[in-house]
Specification:
421 residues, 13 helices, FAD/NAD(P)-binding domain, alpha+beta, binds flavin-adenine dinucleotide, 29% strand, 35% helix, globular, eight-stranded mixed beta sheet
Length: 421
C-alpha cells in the first residue's frame, strides 16, 4: 500500500527540524527522494531572528553546542548559516565550587583545539535548519497538532498493515511508513501511545534570562555550584563571528535553584535580582547593567523505557531529558537524529520498510547506551554538589584541585563533554 508519506516528523523544534534537514539534504544519498512531512503545532516563523544589540534582542533559550553537534551541522550544510546569524564560540570554561576552593579551568588552546563549543540561541538553530528544509521537498504542516496516532499491529509489515495513521486537530488524516515524535519533553505522541517513562523531579526550576555585564565575558562559559543549585553565565555575541568582539558583554543565564527560591528570585524587583545574580557569580564579570525578562522551567529527568514501536520512534526530549547543568540535552538529541537518519537510510537502501521494529530497536540500543551514560554523569554531578557534610565538601574541593592539575585527565573529560570521547 502506498502511504501519503514515507516519514512524518512531529515537532519542528531543534530535533525535528534537524531530522527533516538530515533526511532531505542529500547528505544520506539513500534518503534524498523520501516523501517527508513535518508537522508543528505552532506557526513556524519564516523571518530570520533580528540581530539585537539589547538584552531583549536575544532568545532566552540557548544551547551550548558540542563539537560533535557542530560537525554534524557542518555535514548537513547548515552550520555556516547559524554562524552567519550569530553564535558565540567559547574558548574557556571556568567551573568552581561556591562553598570552597575547588576550581577547574578548561582552555581550548591548552587542549589543542580552536574552541570548546558554541553558544547558539535556539531560534537561530531552528531558523537555519528550517531555512534549509524549506529549500527541499518537505511538506511543512504548521499551526496544526497531531491529535491521534494509530500504529500498524506489531509483527505486521507496514505494507500489510497500511502503515501508521496520524490525525491532525484540523481533521485531516495522513499515513506514513514511519512516524517520528520530536514533540518535546511532554511528548503528546508518546503519551497517546501509552509509552512509559522513568522520571523524577529535580525539585528545581531553571531561571533563564539574558544579561549585559560590566566586564567582558572573555568568550568563557562560567559555572558555579552554589548550595542551592548551579549557575551558568554563557557568552553571547550580538552579530556573526566576523563582526569581531562587539557585544562581548552579553551572557545567557541558566540559574537552577530549589523551586521555592527560584520563585522568590523571579518575584524580586529587577535591581535586587541583578545584585543577587552578580553576587552569586562572585562579581567575576562585574555588575549586571541590564537584564531581559526572566523565565523559568521546571527541571525533570525523564527517560522513555522504549524509544520505538512498530512504525514509530522517539527522538531527543521526547525520549529523554536531563538537568541542564552540563548543557548536553539537545546534543544528545542531535546524536539521536544522526543515528535514526542513518537507520532510515540503511533501511531504504535495502528496500526494507522504514518502520520495521527490529531496525528501530537497533537505533534504540545504539542511543540508549550513550544517553544513559551521559545521564549518569550529569546525575552524579548534580548529587555531588548538593549540600553535603563538611568532610565530603573538603574531599570534593580537593578532588576538583586534583583534576585541575592533571592535563591528561582534563583532556579526557573535555573530549567526552565535546561529544568526541
Ligand atoms: C534551562 C535549559 C537550558 C538548556 N541548555 C541546554 C544547553 O546548553 N545545551 C543542550 O544541549 N541542551 C540544553 N537544554 C536542553 C534543550 O533545550 C532541549 O533538549 C531541546 O530544546 C529539546 O528540543 P526538542 O526539539 O527535542 O523539543 P522541543 O524544543 O520541546 O520541540 C518540540 C516541538 O514539538 C511541537 N509539538 C508538541 N506537541 C505537538 C503535537 N501534538 N503536534 C505537533 N507538534 C507538536 C512543539 O510545539 C515544539 O515546537 C536546556 C534545557 C533547559 C530547560
Amino acid at each position: 500500500m502506498r502511504h501519503d508519506f514515507d516519514v512524518i516528523i512531529v515537532g519542528a523544534g531543534i530535533a525535528g527540524s534537524a531530522l527533516a534537514c538530515a533526511l532531505s539534504s542529500g547528505f544520506y544519498a539513500a534518503t534524498k527522494g523520501l516523501r517527508i512531512a513535518l508537522v508543528e503545532a505552532h506557526k513556524i516563523s519564516d523571518t530570520l531572528p533580528a540581530r539585537g544589540g539589547e538584552v531583549e534582542g536575544f532568545d532566552t533559550r540557548v544551547s551550548a553546542l558540542t563539537r560533535a553537534s557542530i560537525d554534524y551541522f557542518e555535514k548537513l550544510g547548515v552550520w555556516s548559516a547559524m554562524t552567519a546569524l550569530r553564535s558565540c564560540p567559547f574558548v574557556g570554561m571556568q567551573v568552581w565550587d561556591a562553598r570552597g576552593t575547588g576550581e577547574i579551568n578548561f582552555n581550548a588552546q591548552a587542549m589543542g583545539v580552536d574552541y570548546l563549543g558554541h553558544i547558539v540561541e535556539n531560534r537561530v538553530i531552528t531558523a537555519a535548519l528550517m531555512s534549509a528544509v524549506r529549500e527541499q521537498r518537505v511538506e511543512i504542516l504548521d499551526g496544526c497538532a497531531v491529535a491521534s496516532i494509530v500504529l500498524p499491529t506489531a509483527g505486521q509489515s507496514e505494507q500489510a498493515a497500511g502503515g501508521a495513521q496520524v490525525t491532525l486537530d484540523n481533521g485531516s488524516t495522513l499515513t506514513a511508513g514511519l512516524v517520528v515524535a520530536a514533540d518535546g519533553a511532554h511528548s503528546p505522541c508518546r503519551q497517546m501511545l501509552g509509552m512509559p517513562v522513568r522520571a523524577w523531579d529535580y525539585q528545581q526550576d531553571a531561571i533563564v534570562c539574558t544579561v549585559a555585564v560590566s566586564q567582558p565575558h572573555q568568550h568563557t562559559a562560567w559555572q558555579t555550584f552554589t548550595g542551592t543549585g548551579p549557575l551558568a553565565y554563557l557568552p553571547l555575541m550580538t552579530g556573526p563571528q566576523s563582526s569581531g568582539d562587539a557585544g562581548s558583554h552579553y551572557c545567557s543565564i541558566v540559574w537552577s535553584q530549589t523551586r521555592e527560591r527560584a520563585q522568590r528570585l523571579l518575584a524580586l524587583p529587577e535591581a535586587e535580582f541583578c545584585q543577587q545574580l552578580a553576587s552569586a557569580l562572585e562579581f567575576r564579570l562585574g555588575d549586571i547593567v541590564a537584564v531581559s525578562q526572566r523565565r523559568s522551567f521546571p527541571l525533570q529527568q525523564q527517560h522513555a523505557i522504549d524509544y520505538a514501536l512498530e512504525g514509530f520512534a522517539l527522538i531527543a526530549d521526547a525520549a529523554h531529558t536531563i538537568h541542564p547543568l552540563a548543557g548536553q540535552g539537545i546534543n544528545l538529541g542531535i546524536g539521536d537524529v544522526q543515528e535514526l537518519a542513518q537507520t532510515i537510510a540503511t533501511a531504504h537502501a535495502a528496500g526494507a520498510p522504514l518502520g520495521e521494529l527490529a531496525r528501530l530497536q537497533r537505533y534504540q540500543r545504539a542511543r540508549k547506551t550513550d544517553n544513559l551514560a551521559m545521564m549518569a554523569v550529569v546525575e552524579g554531578f548534580k548529587r555531588l554538589y548538593e549540600p553535603v557534610p563538611l568532610p565530603v565538601m573538603w574531599l570534593r574541593n580537593w578532588g576538583m584541585q586534583q583534576v585541575n592539575s592533571q592535563p591528561w585527565l582534563k583532556n579526557k573529560i573535555l573530549k567526552y563533554a565535546m561529544g568526541l570521547g
